[in-house]
Write a sequence for this structure.
């Protein structure tokens, strides 16, 4: 998953700084994903909630893969972009469920989510976007735009999901950013 072959310490010492920098950014990305996975495993009720709604993220993941296939992207970078869009989708699911429960609190809708859960998943999502951005993968910009749209869609200060033109436009932007996350990847080197 790193795209870098460093079988020994001597090979790492002999490699150039750009390769080591790329490897460190990829490791930071995977650490953010691991932290999110561990958090969801520790909070099984939230994991169950996310798994039930994971099919909502599938079209965006497929659009990212389609975009990467169109430009014949590097498989490692495409995998990272796809995982990044999936993480943004999971953060949006958690935001949506929490704020839906907050909005309909008078109807006694129970949710295992707390404010801390939303904040923590948002922070982990941003921590996953940053290393990809600093690795010069332009897909991170698309993922960041998708995340901001998720905030605008769900958070009470705007709550675009409640207003007709805004909700359709944001869902369209999500689709576009997912496709662009694949299309903006550098093509793989010709073999």
């Amino acid at each position: 998953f790193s795209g870098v072959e460093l079988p020994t310490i001597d090979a790492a010492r002999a490699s150039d700084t750009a390769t080591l920098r790329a490897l460190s950014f990829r490791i930071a990305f995977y650490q953010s994903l691991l932290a999110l996975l561990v958090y969801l495993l520790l909070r099984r009720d939230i994991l169950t909630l996310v798994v039930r709604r994971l099919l909502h993220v599938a079209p965006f993941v497929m659009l990212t893969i389609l975009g990467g296939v169109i430009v014949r992207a590097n498989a490692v970078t495409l995998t990272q972009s796809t995982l990044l869009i999936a993480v943004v989708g999971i953060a949006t699911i958690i935001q949506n469920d929490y704020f839906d429960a907050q909005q309909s609190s008078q109807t006694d809708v129970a949710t295992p989510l707390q404010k801390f859960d939303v904040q923590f998943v948002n922070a982990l999502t941003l921590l996953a976007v940053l290393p990809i951005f600093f690795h010069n993968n332009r897909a991170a910009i698309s993922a960041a735009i998708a995340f901001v749209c998720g905030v605008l869609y769900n958070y009470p200060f705007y709550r675009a999901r409640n207003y007709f033109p805004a909700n359709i436009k944001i869902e369209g932007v999500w689709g576009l950013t997912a496709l662009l996350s694949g299309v903006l990847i550098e093509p793989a080197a010709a073999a």
Remarks:
- The two ends are 19 Å apart (CA to CA).
- The chain has a mean pLDDT of 87.
- The CA atoms of residues 160 and 169 lie 9 Å apart.
